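Lecture 7 notes: from sequence to structure.
We start with the chain below.
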Amino acid sequence: MPFHIVLLVLIAALLHASWNTLLRGGADRLWSMTVMCMAVAIASAVAALFLAPPAKASWFYAVLSAVLHVGYNLFLVRSYRVGDLGQTYPVSRGSSPILITLFASVFAGERIAVGALLGIALVSGGIISLAFERCRLAVPSLPYALGTGCFIAAYSVTDGIGVRLSGAPMAYTAWMCALWGVLMPLVYIGLRGANSLLTPRPGFITAFIGGLVSLLAYGIVIYAMSGAPMGAVSALRETSVLFAALMGYFFLGETLTVRKMLACAVIALGTIIIG
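Predicted structure tokens for the same chain:
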């Protein structure tokens, strides 16, 4: 994998951990997530105006990905309701690289070298081990965390195929994210009503900025997947758990044990092997 792709994906990992920390620290996470999606929709729609539309063959994947992103949003919010960032985040992110590698092999015909598979396994294993306490998986929201990982794998492979068919990674990203950003507020309104969404609240600016950060992070990942194996890109992106562990410690008052630091070292080793 080219060095500049590795560097870009690691930057995306840092950005991804940042907006997840903002979301986990919020009081009403569903509202915060919806505001983030509104920011994504606005920024993506503006960008789409200046870009030629992607190839027609990619539109099915853009629509499917937008729907899958909404499912991911709902599961992520639910998993954070009872789980710490340092526990829920590793399970959801750690399960996705293996699933993406499997799905990409089945649906996109990808083959990955043995060395890269070893790196992916190390990254996933290290990530998931962050969620263990005293030899048991201490994640109250485990089903939702694993469900989140499944949605991550599904939309990542969908976008990996779509962006390759689009002929224009930036245009595909803009249109897909605009669709996703519109769908999530509609779901919120269906659940809670329009007044709940439009009533001014503290934290709006923070959530809005978090949405822009999330858009930038995923745009980088889609660009990387246009020319690199999906599983390897995903494994590199999921090093965001390293940043999440540190942010959870410094900003959310979560613990950072020797075991967690050893798991982070395994993740770093896997990243080096992939790179």
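Points to note: The longest helix spans residues 142-166. The two ends are 6 Å apart (CA to CA).
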